[in-house]
Design a protein that fits this description.
Strand content of chain A: under 5%
Protein name (chains A, B): CHAD domain-containing protein
Domain CHAD (chains A, B): 70-433
Biased composition (Basic and acidic residues) (chains A, B): 1-19
Number of domains of chain A: 2
Oligomer: homodimer
Biased composition (Gly residues) (chains A, B): 207-223
Pfam family, one (chains A, B): CHAD
Chain lengths: 438, 438
């Protein structure tokens, strides 16, 4: 609820003033900016506000790709943020259109082929929205010293909230997809490899160089999975239970997203991002006018140091020994699991990667970042899926066969966690760049 | 029930004739040789017959270590078999004494510290007995062409039967130990590493070179495991269920072993091995008088070829990619698992290793055999433990939490299976000897 009335009002008026006056008092204002949102009505606002904002933003992003590297920090950082803001608004507009078109079937897991296409489009737009929000978020952290701090902190909070609220529905769907595919693989041994059921084909699949990199279950294969034969009773019941629970969670998340998209808070975020798409509020009297290498490189370097420190705290040498059994360790216990340190690295790695993106050609290239980051995303998803299986197993009065299948499924996903740690460690330690400072 | 009255009577008389007349008709005689065994009584026979046989055998094994390599095939092969026979009889005698001494507490899982020491001694004697029986068995297979074939086939059958009957009790105990340790590790995360609970120590453990070889859970750590704190309810119940079931199986196996040790069939085996301890029945008119390199090397080479062919049929390249998810594949399905091919290799590898032992200095050394064989033993034990967890989960009316813990445990052991395959593949493909023929 910490959004800025000033920003809303300004962008609502459509006049884009220099950002300095908007930032300073904005973060402290706590009154809900309901005036314009209430006048427009929740439904209409969701569809019109982002579209208008995006149209305004469409004129801003100059040349595609990284901004001219020779410019000032303000040009480079501002250009990056403006592009991301435009992407965010585009995603928001696409999503609002998708939600409007598929409103009838979007509530639960129902819907025909047209509904599925709508859902896929909506998922893609949410993906674009999240990607842009994450990047803005990370950059607002790294380069906070150059930006209006109150504005930056406020926007970060709001971006996180919006991206989270909109994405939750899709992460429920992804989790269900992941767990169903795993159940089918556990029961029939065929899914998840993208191959036939004969061992020779499976072996041939394992022979490809990519498979050696721990890229287990890389293809989604979700649609193919659904067509496979009947599961044994325990696995089938576990699948049905998970589907019930995750579909319920998804429906709730969908309602929450719809509600959020009609809220005043949403309009404030959309307006703030629309403002950002044309103008970046730099800190008054900051260094933003100086050259990129002088101003933008040190914060990125600091992000790298934070990342390195967090990685150094990980038990990497242990994770590098395959089948170290750490993934399942304590999974029948009651205490919290040791995933937090890995998740912390996941976030820091993302922040550093986005800082590198801003620097563009000025950045020291680090080929580890992308594969290591993907491994940590897989770590995160598998851990969440394992937790979903564990929580489903805590449902009262389920059959023992169901609970047994959920136990196997839980362990399987925890081994995915372990495999992801292994992959991360491989990428991180093997291909350390020569030129990187210690 | 296919033992030889001739052998029994001869060895009972204590006169060791050349083996030729005993072998030929021996395998075909089907009458039970109950006369002497019935006269001695089951209990006394179990204690006296092996002791007497071992005493007779004690005079036979000449110099320790491999027999003189320069001798004939008969000397080398006969010497090897005689040493193994003496070991077998010694193990049998020790076991009979141990069973007699600890008869009160040997039935179930009860017994104090004295009972535990007795059990440990009895387990050691059974281990020696099994090891000798396996070696005789393997050598009888590999060098069958040099031996009296009917005698060899008959003795193999009987050795397998006896070793299996006596060892089953201890493998039940080992399996329970393994599963309890795994449950404690899964619930508390500390057991199985032989380290404290702090992650730093665990990581330090992972840093040792041995741990990188996939030597997960190498130390038994069973005694330490038992002293750890209380498990969560599901794990505790699963542990109690497994303990009930495996203790019942162990008690049954113990009774069966006692019964077997009092049977006429047992006396026939003991007598046949006692005969072997002094004299090897070679095939009449065979090559046994020719030099070792000419006669014994080709069968060993053939054993190696059989092993290589079986290994070539394994999906080794897939198993060599860590976290390939094959171990758990189909584990919720109903069809049989794909462990048979690996188990086949385990047996063939053992047979080849024993053939190499016979050859001694004449053998081409293959440093892969021992670590690869150990990995396959671990494969076998983990697969059996996973099956025990799965079968416990099929118990009617268990609580869902119990079934859930058993599912996690099952998956954990299947991942041990996968880890063992990985370790085997590493050993097999990395350190291939230079001089080995393709």
């Amino acid at each position: 609820m910490g959004r800025s009335r000033d920003v809303v009002v300004e962008s609502g008026r459509g006049t884009r003033e220099p950002p300095r006056p908007a930032g300073a008092p904005g973060g402290t204002a706590t009154d809900p900016a309901v005036d314009r949102a209430a006048a427009a009505g929740p439904g209409a606002a969701a569809a019109t506000a982002p579209a208008g904002a995006a149209a305004a933003a469409g004129t801003v992003p100059g040349p595609a790709g990284p901004a001219a590297p020779a410019g000032t920090a303000a040009e480079v950082l501002g250009g990056y943020l403006q592009e991301r803001a435009a992407e965010f608004l585009r995603g928001l507009r696409d999503h609002a259109q998708g939600t409007g078109a598929g409103a009838g079937g979007a509530g639960g897991g129902s819907g025909g082929t047209a509904g599925a296409a709508d859902r896929a489009r909506a998922a893609a737009s949410v993906g674009a929205l999240r990607s842009a929000a994450r990047r803005m978020n990370g950059v607002l952290v790294t380069y906070r010293a150059l930006l209006d701090p109150v504005w930056a902190d406020n926007l970060r909070t709001e971006l996180s909230w919006l991206a989270g609220v909109v994405a939750r529905e899709y992460s429920c769907a992804d989790r269900l997809e992941r767990l169903s595919a795993a159940l089918h693989r556990l029961a029939s041994g065929a899914a998840g490899r993208g191959e036939g059921t004969d061992p020779a084909a499976a072996e041939a699949g394992g022979r490809t160089p990519g498979a050696a990199g721990g890229g287990r279950r890389s293809a989604g294969g979700g649609a193919a999975t659904r067509e496979r034969g009947a599961l044994p009773v325990g696995a089938a019941r576990a699948g049905a239970l998970l589907e019930r629970q995750l579909t319920l969670a998804r429906t709730r998340a969908h309602s929450a997203a719809l509600q959020a998209l009609g809220s005043a808070r949403f309009h404030a975020v959309a307006d703030a991002v629309a403002l950002l798409a044309s103008e970046t509020p730099f800190r008054p009297g900051g260094d933003a006018d100086r050259p990129v290498a002088v101003v933008l490189a040190p914060p990125a370097e600091q992000a790298r140091r934070r990342l390195d420190e967090a990685v150094a705290a990980l038990p990497l040498s242990r994770a590098g020994a395959p089948y170290n059994a750490d993934g399942l360790s304590r999974s029948l216990g009651t205490e919290a699991r040791q995933d937090a340190a890995w998740d912390h690295v996941r976030v820091l790695l993302r922040v550093y990667r986005y800082a590198q993106e801003v620097l563009g050609p000025h950045a020291v290239p680090d080929p580890r970042l992308r594969p290591a980051g993907e491994a940590l995303e897989r770590h995160h998803e598998a851990a969440a899926a394992a937790a979903a299986a564990a929580s489903a197993a805590a449902t009262p009065r389920i059959a023992p066969a169901t609970a047994y299948a959920l136990g196997v499924l839980h362990a399987d996903q925890r081994h995915e966690v372990e495999a992801a740690r292994f992959t991360f460690g491989r990428h991180w330690t093997r291909t350390h760049p020569e030129g990187a400072p210690s």
